[in-house]
């Protein structure tokens, strides 16, 4: 018990130090004046305005650090942060009031030990630094007396918490029951009734059947919320035909990429370097008489093949070894040859022929690239003038008439991804636009500019039968097929009930032994195993899937397999539920203490603290 209390005490000390560091990071921005001193009274304990302000600021700073955005006090109230901070402080004060009534406290010696062990108060030599202690508390807006009183109360709370929570454990029956449920197993036989098993396939529906099905299942053929958008766009591709590119510029771009378009003959090479010529010659001799392989020589040197792989090299890369390496065949080992690291053996793993891309074969591509860059520069130069036209009241239609921009429309949904909707810049603008917004010039990722206008926003609605007809027919066939499969499976169950022989059904079948609830069988629907576990031995059941029906007979109910994994799961479950039990009991104790302390709040003080943050 003492060790557990000590552990809990250190935990609360670290929590308290977290609050202290938060205060060091930013406290002081809040400055309350006047005679207001407390925001709440809980029994004989009080919650000071400084304590509430410090805790509220810590919570705000933590959320700002997570989101990267500053929080206004109105947002703090909307999120309920002010109320959660107050509730936490009231609960702590209620527990302090209870602890004081019980007369629980720690002595000065224990308090001193706690303080000197806090790393934030230690100097560079790891020992307690009194000056650093006072400096840290002063920056946090705390006096030594206030901090030591807080730490004393924290330690006392820890002792009470340890006394309540220590030694509590849930009966092992609880974890055993859960483990029995999770680890239970079933053995069963199943036959698959697939569409190919039907006596005849489902026929295509008539127009009347499609229309009737559509009327009965209109909710399955709904169009999503749609924005009808008119937009004007000017893309680099639209200007290519009107631009001329200087021939010398195209040739210069080709020459600048000579290494890309002209790749000389290369070899895929591995190189094993030795300390001297004798060692290299000895290794080569072993290869020639077959007493060792190149791989063995590499391993004998404590290396892997990846360590000696040089990749693809040109003759210039190989230096004086180039002639012998390039003359060798794939798989040959040549050497010893000189290298920049010493004598080495070279193994050739492959050849790469010279690759020459002529100017004529890439001229059009290079010309389009240069024209595209020129077009993007022109568009960027025109963007300001286009924006001025829109600001002056020009419509998208007028923009398309008076400039090179083209007008188009799109029925845009969240799933749109083709054409202009493939650009994230357009999707963002389409998502944001609302009725009445004025069009503005925006850029796309490829250098295009566009402006858009929301013409109409359509709520989710049934898709007309004329356009949904094929999907309606497919859905009708799927439903009718599922009915036929269910009927076929039902007839199979009737036969099995009398004969009991799955082989006699003529259907593909299988036997599954000792499967748990979490087992997955390919092709079966979700919840398949749960339905199997609801059966009793000898039961026959039809389980309908999406593309097939399954006839299942439960053969045996098996207990969990006694494995190390099951034993570990029981242990983990027992620890988890015991911890939850102890925490719940402690929470009830705190709530009872809070009820008996009868907290009273000073709304004026609370408002004053919150106002000081604005």
Low-confidence stretches: 1-33
What value does the Rg take, in angstroms?
Answer: 40 Å
Going across the major beta sheet, what is the strand order? 16-3-18-17
> DSSP helix count?
24
Rough outline: extended
Question: How many β-strand runs?
Answer: 19
* Overall pLDDT metric: 85
Beta-strand residue fraction: 15-25%
The biggest beta sheet reads:
4 strands, antiparallel
Helical amount: 40-55%
Structural class: alpha+beta
Distance between the termini: 47 Å
Write out key terms for the chains shown.
four-stranded antiparallel sheet; 614 residues; 19 strands; extended; 52% helix; alpha+beta
Fold and architecture overview:
This protein has a 4-stranded antiparallel sheet with strand order 16-3-18-17. A 4-stranded antiparallel sheet has the order 12-5-14-13. Strands 8-7-10-9 form a 4-stranded antiparallel sheet. The longest helix is centred in the last third of the chain and has 35 residues. The chain starts with a helix and ends with a helix. The protein has 24 helices and 19 strands. Helix content is 52%, strand content 17%. Strand 17 and strand 18 form a beta hairpin. With 614 residues, it is α+β, with helices and mostly antiparallel strands.
In short:
With 614 residues, the chain is of the alpha+beta class. It comes from Ruegeria aquimaris. This is SurA N-terminal domain-containing protein.
SSE arrangement:
Layout: H1 2-26, E1 38-42, E2 45-48, H2 49-67, H3 73-78, H4 81-102, H5 108-116, H6 130-139, H7 144-165, H8 172-183, E3 185-193, H9 207-216, E4 222-223, E5 226-234, H10 236-239, H11 247-256, H12 258-261, E6 262-263, E7 266-273, H13 277-289, H14 294-300, H15 305-308, E8 309-313, H16 315-318, H17 322-327, E9 333-337, E10 344-352, E11 355-356, H18 359-391, H19 396-402, E12 406-412, H20 424-432, E13 442-443, E14 449-458, E15 461-462, H21 465-499, E16 509-515, H22 528-533, E17 540-544, E18 549-558, H23 564-597, E19 600-601, H24 603-612
Antiparallel strand pairs: 1-2, 1-19, 3-16, 3-18, 4-15, 5-12, 5-14, 6-11, 7-8, 7-10, 9-10, 13-14, 17-18
Helix pairs in contact: 1-2, 1-7, 2-4, 2-24, 4-23, 8-23, 9-21, 11-18
